[in-house]
Amino acid sequence: MEFDALDQSLAQAGAHAGAAECHGALAGWLASGQGADPEPWLATMLEELDPGEAKVDRCRRDLLVLHRLVADQLAGGELAFRPLLPADEIPLTTRVSALAEWCEGFLYGLGLAGAAAARGGDEVREVIGDMSQIARAGLETGESPSEEDEVAYAELVEYLKVGAQTVHDGLRPARPRRLH
Q: Which domains does the chain have, with CATH numbers?
């Protein structure tokens, strides 16, 4: 699913969250190990919306597709996951804001699941702390973003890609090893 399509679906339904925050919340919810059932996450994303309305129903279907996609990406463990953010052609200030919203959503999703970061160890706690910092990110207005700003943004996106997988893998219950 593309960023713009999800953002439009959420806006048309009247959802309070945009695509970045919604995707981040889903990733956090799934990373917690509690996200197999999408209903609590869906209820939060579509809170106070009329489920009988066609636009809300269409958005719900889009979110269910997104749930399956993100669950498969994180479960694959091959770094197939990528935060859903605006395209590179969008101004950097907008992308940085969306990146911050994505991190806020991720942290919210972990909280929604009641995920205890402590059970994930030092690496998980570090990623969560970093996401808390990134959630406050922004660019100063008035100056044109530099090439260094673009590189820093790309590095943060890559870090979040790996970080989300790290949290997912660190908070998942250990699977019993199969004996051959």
A: 3-171 (1.20.120.740)
